[in-house]
Specification:
The chain is α/β, with parallel strands linked by helices. The protein contains ten helices and nine strands. Helix 2 packs parallel to helix 4, helix 6 crosses helix 7 and helix 8 runs antiparallel to helix 9. The longest helix is centred in the last third of the chain and has 16 residues.
């Protein structure tokens, strides 16, 4: 023995994933669920420990300043608002405006605070749900993950319906079969949802008024719309 103490990632369970209570019964350690959620993020190509932080978001006008300030306030006040009707956060409009950066950084910060935040990139998640629709048991498990998450991050909602700021498609029956139960469940159970979409609120209403109404209602005042091509931050340096 060299006298050095063993270094554990989790000091509560010493990396075994279980904690014994005073009655000699075992329960899962919080770290187990957190690592499980991190694996789900990574399965969609996002590592919550490595995503861009909110501090890395550089505002350049009044709207982007307001977005950053509101995102920081959302993280800070999350425990106070999480059970409210207006407990969510939505960024809509122009591609390249940093919408994903902001909502993912909020989710990662909450996850770091032991809030079980699930990342759901819309296109990939819908593809996975549609591919498993005939396996009822697995499908219920998949959709339940998104319905019941403490916080759900829906990234690029209805991305395939928009091109260059215009609607190019409509919501099909298959689309509604998968996304509507998720939004509906979260709405009625007051579960916080972080949304990014190239759709504007008016476009969402054109796609489905009832679905849009629920999302806009639970976002409350934390709705921000990038409605100008100048908000394409990725392309600014080429102009």
């Amino acid at each position: 023995m060299d006298g050095r103490e063993t270094q554990y990632k989790c000091t509560k369970c010493k990396d075994i994933g279980w904690i014994r209570n005073e009655h000699d019964a075992y329960r899962r350690c919080d770290c187990y669920e957190k690592e499980k959620i991190e694996r789900l993020w990574k399965a969609f190509g996002a590592n919550p420990k490595e995503v861009k932080k909110l501090n890395n978001y550089i505002p350049y006008d009044e709207l982007t300043k307001k977005v950053k300030q509101s995102a920081a306030q959302y993280i800070k006040s999350f425990e106070d608002i999480r059970k409210n009707r207006e407990n969510s956060f939505g960024l809509f409009g122009q591609s390249g405006a940093g919408k994903t950066h902001v909502i993912v950084s909020i989710g990662a910060a909450l996850l770091n605070n032991n809030v079980k935040a699930i990342y759901m990139p819309y296109l990939e998640a819908m593809r996975e749900l549609k591919a498993n629709v005939i396996d009822n048991e697995h499908y219920i498990k998949l959709i339940g993950r998104y319905q019941q998450a403490e916080v759900l991050i829906i990234d690029d909602l209805f991305k395939e319906k928009v091109r260059k700021g215009n609607l190019i498609g409509y919501i099909t029956e298959a689309d509604m079969k998968h996304i509507y139960p998720i939004i509906n469940y979260r709405y009625f159970n007051y579960l916080p949802t972080l949304i990014s979409s190239e759709c504007t609120p008016s476009m969402l209403c054109d796609l489905d008024d009832a679905l849009a109404g629920r999302m806009l209602e639970f976002c409350g005042e934390d709705i921000f719309i990038f409605d100008d091509l100048n908000y394409n931050y990725r392309m600014r340096r080429f102009k």
